[in-house]
Amino acid sequence: MRRSYCLPLALISFAFVLSACAPRPSQLSDLPRTPEASVDQILQNADRRRGEEANLLRLHAAQAAMNAGQAERVQQILSQVPQSELPVDQQIRFSSLQAKSALALDQTRVALQAIRHPSIQQLDSQPLEEQIAVHQLRANVLEASGDHIAAIRERIYVDALLSGNAQRNNRLAIWESLQAMDSSELRQAHERADVELAGWLELMLASREAGSLDLQVRRIQLWQENNPAHPANQPLPESIRQRLELYDERPQHIALLLPFEGSLAGPAQALRDGFLSAQYQVQEQGLPQPRVSLYDSTQFADLNQFYRQAKADGVQWVIGPLERDKVTQLARMNPLPLPTLALNYTDADVSGQEGLFQFGLAPEDEARSAALNAWSQGYRSMAVIQSSQGDWAERAYRAFDQAWQELGGQLLGREMIDQPTEMAGQIGGLLNIRQSEQRGQRIQRLLGSNVVVQPAPRADLDALFVAITPQQGRQLKPILAFQYAADMPVLATSHVFQPGSDPAGNLDLDGILVAETPWLLNRSDALYGPVTNSWPQASGAMGRLFAMGIDAQRVFTLLPQMQQNVSTRVEGATGTLTLQADGRISRLVPWGEIRDGQLSELTPMPLMP
């Protein structure tokens, strides 16, 4: 279905009405001043005058200070001007200066108040150029406040009135706002969007959600056919054009390098089956796919030998290996003979390494997601409880600590737990319960034993981040209840919950928030049904590896663009994927809550209208 896009009638009418507008009250341009007057000179002139003329001169001084980048001085000057006593057009200018200076000083709330001043409701009485400028300012303020859709609506409103570079920059700003939004936000906004906004949203979703590059390109091309006159199609955003170019240059022969023998054979098979399932899904839709050759990484002690063989076989890209020590080998090979997406991470320095990308189910990703989630919930002070079993919990702690400190949060303590018999005492110490009990005993001695004093955990602790096993997790909530902290929010890595386990055995985990792959959390991936029907184990803990294989197939052809455009993200089966400067793919993981012993997806917060 083709769509048409027209200039809003209200805006068309502006151009005809403006020429007939009555003369406006006094203007800044009417005031006596020298063309090169400094802010101080204008203010001195204002001090020699009274009433409206003095106010307008101070407003002019504020404008000059804003032009000079002196945001704090703008606010100082405006504080001397009674906005309500100004003519309406200058009240609008006052609000604009107030909003601009507040934005420059990161005072988003002040900027929002400024653009909502009653005078802005009379904006349509002003010249069209000023109207456009105020709408663009409002868009910038709304963008800074996180209300991306409202900002986009402002930009769409004025787009047809712009031309040349101004219009190109406006459309680029729309696209950048869309890139900053989560896909769930995009889908919610689409439900009540008008035709033009819906077109922008659909194009962004097509570039994220369709899956592999082949499916994305097909969906983008269909969007182009249905929206020939849409502003986003004249021309397409740069990142979309890059994607179409990548499709023409995609590799035709890839190697899957996995350990099909030994202790990692099970995970390797799950990765292989997930990868090939994603490949077959595209192939079944009539889109040709590259040839895949399987190589057993356990047969190559020296990876140089593998690359020589792979190049001789005509391979253009390598997916793998899985073994951590072999990924470290890759980090020491510079340059790599072929571009490679390793399916694990190395601690070795990879700076300056060309052609090496790393992707895995790292606990660090879940820890960083926990920090972001906790901060968005308004928590500012947290503590960590981690298992002493294996290095994954320590890695999760370090990643959480770094992310939490970068956000500005406070880490109040950490406990490493091992022995079940000691766990209650360790958690009680972390919560300062013993001190609370002692305070209660002192109060009873002073006031009498009839006084009931309820111990309480430390008041400065908002929530806990935990990296612990399911067995430790089943002890945690009862201990918190015993320590008078049953309502303490708990955010955990996926290690705390075993998918597919008996819900009755998980009741003591109820209330814990868990980072989990979309594959297991919402089961909405197009491949979930076909894959779990063929491999029932893909619905349990092994499903994370199937999902990782699927994402490896979907993402590797997009890596060149992800290098060029850091805002590129892929909504995958393992999370929202982005590429870091060091070639690591990071995941932003969604969250679920354990209820009645089962993990349920948290309902996204609705968008404000």
On the 0 to 100 scale, the average pLDDT is 87
Let me know the number of strands.
15
Name given to the CATH architecture of the largest domain = 3-Layer(aba) Sandwich
Query: Taking strands numbered 1, 2, ... along the chain, how are they ordered across the largest sheet?
Result: 7-6-8-9-10-14-15
Describe, in short, the structure shown:
Helix content is 49%, strand content 11%. It has 609 residues and is an alpha/beta fold. The chain has a 7-stranded mixed beta sheet with strand order 7-6-8-9-10-14-15, sandwiched between helices.
Describe, in plain words, how this protein is organized in 3D.
Helix content is 49%, strand content 11%. The chain folds into three domains: 9-180, Serine Threonine Protein Phosphatase 5, Tetratricopeptide repeat (Alpha Horseshoe); 253-361 and 527-591, Rossmann fold (3-Layer(aba) Sandwich), CATH 3.40.50; 363-516, Response regulator (Rossmann fold). It is built from 25 helices and 15 strands. The model is unreliable at 6-35, 433-445, 451-455 and 605-609 (pLDDT under 50). It has helices at residues 9-18, 39-47, 51-67, 71-78, 88-104, 108-115, 128-144, 148-159, 164-179, 183-190, 195-209, 213-226, 238-248, 265-283, 303-312, 324-331, 363-376, 392-407, 420-430, 433-447, 470-482, 518-521, 528-534, 543-555, 559-564, and strands spanning 253-258, 291-296, 317-319, 340-342, 356-358, 381-387, 410-417, 463-467, 490-492, 513-515, 570-571, 576-579, 585-588, 591-595, 598-601. The strands form three sheets. It has a seven-stranded mixed sheet, sandwiched between helices. The chain is globular. The protein has 609 residues and is of the alpha/beta class. Helix 3 (51-67) runs parallel beside helix 5, helix 4 (71-78) runs antiparallel to helix 5 (88-104) and helix 7 (128-144) runs antiparallel to helix 8 (148-159). Helix 21 (470-482) links the parallel strand 8 (463-467) and strand 9 (490-492).
